């Protein structure tokens, strides 16, 4: 299979954006359970989310370069019942929207407790927005992966491992970027993200070889 460069760019850029968001929310989840120190909402989570969003937007822009009729792109969502491409077209902007709201909530320090849990843990808006974004993120990974996994005439792609490859490679790329971002904004998290980058990269290598 020899995909157009625009397809390579869009899947890579969007995958990095997805992986970076997952890295950020993983860090927040660890902090929620007191496994990692809390980080500044604005300089770490908000800025990090905006970087993630920038990669997603860049991937979306790249997608228009392999459309024969970009003005008809909106029609791609019409076949969502049967087409994984249509599902991707729907999930991507939904995911981008929730990532934007996640960034805004952190930027304005919207940390008022919404749900109180035992042990002095409070669920706030950013945690809920992050959870919704995480679900959409994996839905996007699955939709993108299935576009290629359902191609029966390409035996190398026609396998559930294709979906896992997208998830693991995107996650590894995003956590690597998170490691670099943390080195500048939250050095105490660099080792955490670097460790997960190594784990995801090894798993991605095993999955890709398989």
Outline:
The chain has 210 residues and is mainly alpha-helical. Helices cover 69% and strands 4% of the residues.
Describe this structure as you would to a colleague.
The chain is mainly alpha-helical. 69% of the residues lie in helices and 4% in strands. The chain has 6 helices and 2 strands, in the order H-H-H-E-E-H-H-H. It has a two-stranded antiparallel sheet. A hairpin with a 3-residue loop joins strand 1 and strand 2. The protein is globular, with a radius of gyration of 18 Å. The protein starts with a helix and ends with a helix.
| Helix content, binned percent | 55-70%
SSE order, as H and E? Answer: HHHEEHHH
Structural class: mainly alpha
The biggest sheet, with number of strands, parallel, antiparallel or mixed sense and barrel status, is: 2 strands, antiparallel
Distance between the termini: 18 Å
Mean pLDDT: 89
What is the rounded Rg?
A: 18 Å
- Report the uncertain regions: none
Number of helices: 6
Keyphrases for this structure?
about 210 residues; two-stranded antiparallel ribbon; 6 helices; globular
What's the layout of helices and strands?
Layout: H1 5-32, H2 41-63, H3 84-107, E1 113-117, E2 121-124, H4 125-149, H5 161-185, H6 190-209
Antiparallel strand pairs: 1-2
Helix pairs in contact: 1-2, 1-4, 1-5, 2-3, 3-4, 4-5, 5-6
